[in-house]
Amino acid sequence: MRFKLIKDPVHGYIEVSEAELRVVDSYPVQRLRRIIQLPFVYLVYPGARHSRFDHSLGCMHLAGEFARSLGLDDYRRRVLRLAGLLHDLGHPPYSHLFEALLEEAGLSHEAMTARILRGSGELAEAVEACGVSAEDVLEVLEGRAAESPIISGPIDADKLDFLMRDAYFTGAPYGIIDARRIILRSRLLDGRLAVNINAVGAVEEMALARYQNFLNIYFHHTVRAAQMLFLSGARMLEDLSSLSELSVEEYLRLDDYEVWCMMKRSEKARWVVERIERRRIPKVAFELRLAEGKIPESVLRDPEGAKLEIASLSGVSEKAVWIDTPYVTPLPFKDESRVEFFDETSGKPRPVEYSSPLLEFTSRIYGMVRVYADPEYLERVRKASEKYFEGVLSSSS
Fold first, then answer.
1. Domain boundaries, the chain
2. Most CB within 10 Å of its CB: which of 156, 171, 364, 385?
């Protein structure tokens, strides 16, 4: 079988068969070149211009490496590689930033991925030309296959690739992960992906890299401020208010370039683009960093109400104040989807319990509350925020 070699800066050369290349070259997959992996992170880390396409190729490669290490047959390996390649097809423009627009309609990018795979004749034909059933790929993507944890689980090809890739392109030193050791030391036990206890150090390394990436890249205050600003502008456009109602063809026509131009043409939203073009981003006026369960429920439940009250207390227009409540989602360790370990000193893999202080720590939800304001109002908004949260925290304690 002939292969095309694609040079990837993270994994080296990625082999793609001629049949798989037809899938790669399909319109739904090529669209991912025009969807940035980390929206507006380039405002802080200039090299972070990589796309969902880059990540999808990397995920396909790692899924294939998992399949080879696990001893899966050639058919299941092809299914897994295509599942890795296609797992992010349903992302809206600007990736997770616009996923909020999907979630408001009760959908997710995973649901849109399934809709595209079922609704795009070009893509379905390309998958079938690989000698693979599109339904078998969907079975993996929808969590119904024994190998599904390789694509979506506590430790999977998706996480391993995006952690290493995001660290590489930002230049941040948090993505040093021994992915090869994790893959070679993994087994499928009772429908769950488990890691040899001898590789627990590599798992802890990955968990810590993930935690640091969230705090220092994904939740960087300037990044979040630009994202909030852009999303507020997008909400002003009627064409983006009903993403879930678009046909597959209409949805696939939307990408970052299209949305950027739509906003520049809009009298309502143009000011947002102009601010980002000049890097006039709101600044942090106040910040709280709190452990799981410590952030006031009233703020999480109604951040808009908290913003309006702070704006009122400061005497500043609500349009010059923003509030953000990001939180680091936990790497599962305690619940039914936790990271599993096994021991095979006796020659046969058997599940083992392992208590890791580091994994315990990264399994907790860690959140923050940030109040932003335009530079000229920082001091007034800071004082108002301190007064507001002093009252909220004292009443909730």
1. 3-281
2. 385
What distance lies between CA 347 and its chain's CA centroid?
38
With tokens 């001898």, the residue in question is 198
Separation of alpha carbons 224 and 216, rounded Å:
11
Per-residue pLDDT reduced to its tens digit, 80-111: 999 999 999 999 999 999 998 888 878 889 99
* Distance (Å, whole) CA 313 – CA 309: 6
On whether the pTM is more than 0.85, the answer is yes
Instruction: Report phi then psi at 70, rounded to 5.
Output: -80, -5
Is the per-residue pLDDT at 296 higher than 80?
Answer: no
Sign (positive/negative) of CA torsion 136, 138, 139, 143? positive
